[in-house]
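DM from R.C. (forwarded with permission)

"hey, sorry to bug you on a friday — could you get me a structure for this? deadline for the figure draft is monday and I only need the backbone to look sensible"
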Amino acid sequence: MYVVNVFQTSRDLCKESGAHIECMVKAGVGLMVSLRERSVIQLYHLETLQYLQDINVASAVTLTLNGGALHLFHVL
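My reply, with the result:
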């Protein structure tokens, strides 16, 4: 089990004004951070907290909410 100091990390990761961390998930040596009311998940290296990339999930969420993802599992 890994414990992340949320207060220290949130101050270091959220440089933009008004950004609030919604969820943090450890995945391998990565730390995935979702910000409240943002369609981007930020990926950081867990040990160094070095920023790696943004992952835009807006189109996937829109597709799922519109029922498009259901067609992927439709069996005739």
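R.C.: lifesaver. The two ends are 43 Å apart (CA to CA).
me: no worries. The chain has a mean pLDDT of 75.
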